[in-house]
Amino acid sequence: MNAAASHCAKGIGIWDWASSDAGAEPDVVMACAGDIATMEALAATAILKKNCPELAIRFVNVVDLFRLMPDTEHPHGLSDRDFDSLFTLDKPIIFNFHSYASLIHKLAYRRHNHHNLHVRGYKEKGNINTPLELAIINQVDRFNLAIDVIDRVPRLQRTAAHIKDWLKSQLLEHLDYAHAQGIDAESIRNWTWPAA
Predict the structure, then answer these.
(1) Which of 135, 88, 130, 95 has its CA nearest to residue 112?
(2) Which domains, ranges and CATH numbers included, belong to the chain?
(3) Would you say residue 126 has pLDDT above 90?
(4) What pLDDT, on a 0 to 100 scale, did the predictor assign at position 124?
(5) Model confidence at 123, in pLDDT bands (50, 70, 90)?
(6) Which of 83, 119, 132, 150 has the fewest Cβ atoms nearer than 10 Å?
């Protein structure tokens, strides 16, 4: 509880327990804001850690969106140095967001690594769907996020074809299950972070 209160007070931070960069330079930054977006980003990270153990992932959670702005533009904003230390100067950033992707781009457009910022957010797609179906339709689900990482980390583009193929199969299997059962699979509904 103390760690959660501290994180909320900071408004943004690295979740070491979900990261695999061990304080070194990451291959990719997985960032998120919003409860479902965070859960799906965590699930994608767990999939990647299991299937690509050599991948260095930095997991960044954002509670206060104004932290993405420069400190010269908003009192909650981060300095360029602080922003760069979280998000790097040149690594891909996959940002899962519970609302419109354009908002994150507007808040961070002056940042050094903005060209590597790939935001996944609400696309106004969906109807009466299960939670995972809705996430898949808007490409904010764990499988699409993991595929996005594979597509953007050059080393994985060459070595993770089998994992990417499995992820695409998972998309189809979970959509078929939801259509047939009217509910997401139990492994999705009751997903928790894997025990160490």
Answers:
(1) 88
(2) 2-189 (3.40.50.920)
(3) no
(4) 79
(5) confident
(6) 119
